[in-house]
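Lab manual, section 2.4: Encoding a predicted structure.

Procedure: take the sequence of the chain (136 residues), apply the prediction step described in section 2.3, and record the output as structure tokens. A sample record is shown.
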Amino acid sequence: MTMNGKRILVVEANQVSSRSFSKVLESAGYSVVKAADGSGAVSTARHEKPDLIVLDPTFPPDVAHGGGVKWEGLLIIEWLHHMQEAMATPVILISDNGAAEDQERCMADGVVAVLQKPVDNDELLATIASVLNAES
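Recorded output:
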């Protein structure tokens, strides 16, 4: 199944998880760009204009303070939704925190889906396909 050039930005600080997500998405025919922190996510979204963003909102302390900004998932989403290049880009959140109030806040901030870690690859691909088909 080829997705005809749909580009997905994977924002994940853990390199093993980042490579794993990338392999799954590329094997399904998506083009993948990656960022390892908040400033990278904002910069990559601005320059690459992805069709969808897969975001793990948790960053280790040494990564979370890139450029003097305490990056975390919801701050990244706020920045993205204020940028002309990414304000309409759907975001799928990959969470290791199942708190319902966090999920409600995320959905209010423009997240289209929240998947729990460990992420099932089939569920990830089905969610992405559903979101991208709805966008078309």
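Check your result against the sample. Residues 46 and 84 are 8 Å apart (CA to CA).
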